[in-house]
Write a structure and sequence with these properties.
By secondary structure, the chain is of the alpha/beta class. The chain has a single domain, classed as Lipoprotein like domain (Double Stranded RNA Binding Domain), CATH 3.30.160.150. It has three helices and six strands.
Length: 195
C-alpha cells in the first residue's frame, strides 16, 4: 500500500512540469482617490551640477505620455513623487593601447518615494533604484558623449518611475524591502510625513 501511494505521488509530481507553474503577482494599483500626481523637484546629493532639473522634467514628461494620472502642481495633487539622486558614478571600463578610455559605464542611483498627501504617509519607497548605461567614447563610431549617455539614463529612469507608480505599486525593483502601510512584519522607516 505504501509503495502504491509513493508511486502515485511520484507520478503526480512528474506530470507537473516546472513550465506549467507560472508566478504572476496580482496587479496592485494606487488607491482610487489618487487621480493627480505631482513630481517634486528631485534633490541632487552628487557632485554633478544640474542633474536634478533634467530628471524631474523627464519624469513629468513620462507621466504626461502615460496619461493614466493627471500631472498637476503639488498643492492640487493627491500623490507626490519625491526623489533624490544619491550616486553618479562614471567609470572607464575599457582602454586602448595608449591607455585612453574607450568604453565607459555610467551608474546612477536614485531614492524614490510616493507620498499620499491625503493620508500624510509614504505608500512605497525605493531607496536604491539603479540605472546603468555602458557606452563607447564619443570619438568612436556609434559613441556617445557623457551628456548623451545621461539623457539615455534619464529616459530609462523616468520610465521606471512611471512604471513603478502606475503598474507596480507595492512591488520591489531595487534592494529595498517591500514597505506597505499597515504591514506589521516590515519595519517602516518613516511613519508620519510632513511634506
Amino acid at each position: 500500500m505504501k509503495k502504491l501511494i509513493f508511486f502515485t505521488a511520484v507520478l503526480g509530481l512528474a506530470a507537473c512540469s516546472s513550465s506549467d507553474i507560472i508566478y504572476k503577482p496580482a496587479t496592485q494599483k494606487l488607491p482610487l482617490y489618487i487621480k493627480r500626481i505631482a513630481v517634486r523637484p528631485f534633490a541632487n546629493k552628487t557632485q554633478q551640477f544640474g542633474l536634478e532639473e533634467k530628471i524631474t522634467l523627464k519624469v513629468i514628461e513620462e507621466f504626461l505620455k502615460n496619461g493614466e494620472y493627471i500631472v498637476s502642481p503639488e498643492n492640487a495633487a493627491q500623490g507626490v513623487i519625491v526623489g533624490e539622486i544619491s550616486h553618479y558614478i562614471l567609470t572607464p571600463i575599457q582602454y586602448d593601447v595608449n591607455l585612453v578610455p574607450t568604453v565607459y559605464k555610467l551608474n546612477v542611483i536614485a531614492g524614490l518615494r510616493l507620498l499620499d498627501r491625503e493620508q500624510n504617509r509614504y505608500l512605497w519607497e525605493e531607496p536604491a533604484l539603479q540605472v546603468t548605461k555602458i557606452y563607447s567614447a564619443a570619438n568612436l563610431p556609434g559613441g556617445l558623449t557623457e551628456e548623451q549617455a545621461r539623457e539615455a539614463l534619464w529616459e530609462i529612469l523616468a520610465k521606471d518611475v512611471v512604471l513603478r507608480t502606475v503598474s507596480g505599486f507595492g512591488s520591489v525593483s531595487s534592494t529595498s524591502q517591500k514597505k506597505l502601510p499597515g504591514n506589521q512584519d516590515v519595519q517602516q522607516s518613516s511613519g508620519t510625513v510632513i511634506p
